[in-house]
Design brief:
With about 775 residues, the protein is α+β, with helices and mostly antiparallel strands. It is built from 19 helices and 32 strands.
């Protein structure tokens, strides 16, 4: 059967642009004009439409499921339950295998899939789905993450227990240091559930193969990891499942877990027809994981001049019903739990727990975001207690070359944090508030104020984020590069399985090929599973890992070209180099061209790129060199706050970030802006509101995300301190600004209001109502 008609095919990367340049993205114009083919646009003749029946309860036993009335609806081709799962009934990231394909005994969160329907029209599928009769024995949901972590008598959501992972970190002697500390501050912090809020809902197309297998066109972040889970559930060997990346409308971690992949494949295999599934926005809120909400307690001790002497930290992350990425999120939260500061005595206890709240997993920042809000808030509180400025307290305690993280890992070649803070502080401040234009005011054109009660505040935030996968994971990426003459011009074809999720990877792959091979014409092959694993488009790792794989594959191709040229010209390979498509001798200059050397030959090389090994975290002390690379970002935020109404306008965010090497400034600036926008959202507006396990705002009407009107101007100071172990010296850049932007904004609101503000997102009532702010109410 042919491929879907809207599949975009290979992407030609037009124009010049090598590493360090800023060529435009080949998909950019199509997306701006609304012509890009996303996974929800897929179409093929004769396809059916799938729909999923989901539980309305966060916790209930399934007594019975009656599908007879649904099967009787005209146009219905299949109705499937857990009895129809061909193979293993559960899937899960990293070998956890704890999430049912379709619930078979108990539902453990609102929106858990129960049954599938396939019909000749999407409305028919939805009508039939409503006729499935499920009898539940409704149970009281288990929603208290703190009790799940700390109370051994609390009932367990999962058979494997209430705690997915407890990761301690132990350094020095906290009890002794507490007795010596001259200043002690403490606070409790909480972070709400943030959604990735990608604009392209979960969707894809499954086409049954003549060999009994299936072709899947899906929007995902990691096809090979999907394949590891899909195969056993379908009862198929990997070679019978062919996956191709369809157009992805954003990801931010929310597509690391499976959504509709197995469901669409089951329906396609059952009916023998292609099946397309597209979630609506409401269903999407239940169809993917979210950022873990957190409850945290921090206690810091210091000398009177602000030097930290101990940190005592408890972090509780609510993973919801199933494991997903919780194990690794806990590892990040624990290892980065006190940030980029030197503290000689540390106790951290980080927990990831199971509840009947919405499932949580990967989201941009991945455990470090929650901890960063707490430790940066603590640095501000400590500064106030010591009579120091927020910048000074951070500079006094900042890590530098050779410093140790809480895990004992040595800091290698970071940007000098003290200098970064000074640069952020020295950036020009925005102009004073002009209240003559109401658009400048909190509330904007709503005319809630004309300047009365509006106070300006300034705050700082620092984020330390690990790059690439950690904790002894053999992280690698594969690239295949082909060089041949087409139409008289040497042309490179780059083929990886790396997911382009909007970050600009296809542009960078072409830049690397042009740089290493000296060609102008580069084509990026559609990402699929006919080439080796490229890992996930997450952890700010694809420029490092897949960029590294493309680089070494191109180097292998270039070496093969030199061998050919050497044989043809009678020259030693070591004497040859490439310059703009010309074969150049170190002694005689230009000898010939790529086209002449290649002739009718095709040179193709496949290579893997691995980063340096990491270690696990000791299960008792947390010690270990668990991270590949670390990146820093510093934000300064300026806000105007209407203290009477609790409205906040972010006036400016300035960022100083070390990226190692700028590969594409345009894309890089977009990553810093985008990460800052998501941090702004978490600071002042984004939260999935959950009551007793039930989501109250599953829509973009009630779940608010920043728009272009909410984003302030940004000043960027981008530093290049190369990492000698990374391709081109680069340092992953997509996640660090998400960490530091949130605490910087909250600190600025504190500066304007004098409030403690220990919870994000900040709501208006946290500013206007003393009872809504625990520390203010008790003072």
């Amino acid at each position: 059967m042919s491929a879907p008609t809207t599949f975009p095919g290979a992407i030609a990367a037009p124009g010049l642009g090598r590493v360090g340049d800023s060529p435009l993205r080949p998909d950019g114009t199509l997306k701006v004009k609304g012509e890009f083919a996303y996974s929800s646009d897929l179409f093929i003749d004769g396809m059916l439409y799938g729909a999923t029946l989901r539980s309305p309860h966060p916790r209930a036993r399934i007594v019975s499921v009656d599908i007879s009335k649904a099967l009787a609806v005209p146009g219905i081709e299949a109705v499937l339950t857990h009895d129809d799962v061909p193979g293993r009934k559960c899937y899960g990231l990293d070998g956890t295998w704890d999430q049912p394909v379709l619930a078979f005994d108990e539902v453990r969160h609102e929106g858990e899939p129960i049954a599938l329907v396939a019909a000749d029209h999407p409305e028919t599928a939805r009508r039939a789905m409503e006729k499935i009769e499920v009898v539940y024995e409704v149970l009281e949901p288990l929603c208290d993450a703190r009790r799940a972590a700390l109370d051994p008598t609390y009932p367990k959501v999962q058979d494997r227990g209430g705690i997915a992972r407890h990761q301690p970190v132990r350094v020095g002697d906290v009890a002794s240091a507490r007795a010596r500390a001259e200043v002690i501050v403490s606070s409790d912090f909480s972070v709400g559930i943030q959604d990735q809020a990608f604009l392209g809902p979960e969707s894809g197309l499954a086409i049954p193969g003549e060999d009994g297998g299936v072709d899947l066109y899906v929007a995902t972040q990691w096809m090979h990891n999907d394949l590891e889970q899909i195969g056993p559930c379908l009862g198929l060997p990997k070679e019978k499942i062919r996956m191709t990346l369809a157009g992805v409308g954003g990801a931010f971690g929310g597509r690391e877990d499976l959504s509709m992949q197995i469901h669409a494949a089951m329906l396609a295999m059952h009916t023998g027809k292609p099946v397309k599934i597209v979630y609506n926005r409401y269903e999407s809120f239940f169809g993917h994981v979210h950022r873990h909400p957190a409850q945290m307690h921090y206690e810091y001790g210091a000398t009177r001049d602000g030097k930290l002497v101990f940190a005592d930290v408890e972090i509780i992350l609510d993973g919801g019903a199933y494991t997903s990425a919780t194990l690794n999120v806990v590892g990040n939260a624990a290892s980065l739990g006190v940030g980029p500061y030197v503290i000689p005595n540390i106790e951290i206890d980080a927990y990831g727990v199971y509840t009947n709240n919405p499932p949580c997993g990967a989201m941009r920042g991945f455990g470090a975001v929650q901890a960063c809000f707490a430790y940066e808030s603590m640095m501000d509180k400590l500064a106030q207690a010591c009579g120091m400025s927020p910048v000074e307290i951070r500079q006094v305690n900042a890590v530098s070359q050779g410093s140790l993280l809480a895990t004992g890992q040595v800091i290698e070649a970071p940007a000098p944090l003290a200098e970064m803070l000074a640069r952020a502080e020295a950036m020009p401040m925005p102009s004073p508030l002009d209240s003559s234009d109401i658009r400048n005011l909190p509330g904007g054109a709503s005319q809630t104020t004309h300047g009365e009660g509006v106070v300006r505040g300034v705050g700082y935030g620092v984020g330390l984020k690990n790059i690439c996968f950690s904790e002894n994971y053999d992280d690698y990426s594969t690239a295949r590069v082909r060089l041949e003459v087409i139409g008289g011009e040497a042309t490179a074809l780059v083929h990886t399985a790396a997911a382009e999720v909007g970050q600009g990877l296809v542009t960078l792959e072409a830049q690397i090929a042009r740089t290493e091979l000296g060609v102008t014409k580069v084509t990026i092959h559609p990402a699929d599973t006919t080439v080796g694993n490229s890992g996930s488009s997450s952890a700010s790792r694809q420029s490092y890992m897949t960029g590294g794989a493309v680089k070494v594959a191109c180097e292998a191709v270039r070496e093969a070209v030199f061998v050919l040229a050497g044989l043809h010209l009678g020259r030693a390979v070591a004497d040859l180099s490439l310059d703009g498509g010309k074969i150049v001798s170190a002694t005689d200059g230009v000898l010939t061209t790529l086209e002449d050397v290649l002739g009718d030959r095709v040179i193709e090389q496949t290579r893997e790129f691995h980063h340096r090994p990491t270690t696990g975290m000791d299960p008792v002390t947390g010690q270990g060199a668990s991270h590949t690379q670390l990146a820093l970002c510093v934000h300064r935020a300026v806000v105007d706050v209407d203290v009477d109404l609790g409205l906040v306008k972010v006036v400016e965010m300035s960022a100083v970030q070390d990226v190692g090497k700028i590969l594409n400034r345009l894309s890089l600036e977009g990553q810093i802006h985008g990460g800052s926008a998501q941090g702004l959202g978490l600071a002042v507006m984004e939260e999935i509101v959950v009551t007793n396990g039930l989501v109250k705002n599953p829509s973009f009407t009630d779940y608010l995300i920043p728009t272009i009107l909410d984003m302030p101007t940004m000043k960027l100071d981008i530093l290049e301190n190369p990492d000698p172990l990374a391709p081109y010296g680069l340092r992953g850049a997509g996640e660090p600004p998400t960490l530091s932007s949130t605490p910087a904004i909250v600190a600025a609101v504190r500066d304007a209001t004098g409030l403690a503000l220990t919870r994000v997102p900040i709501r208006p009532e946290h500013i206007t109502d003393p009872a809504a702010d625990p520390e203010r109410a008790s003072s």
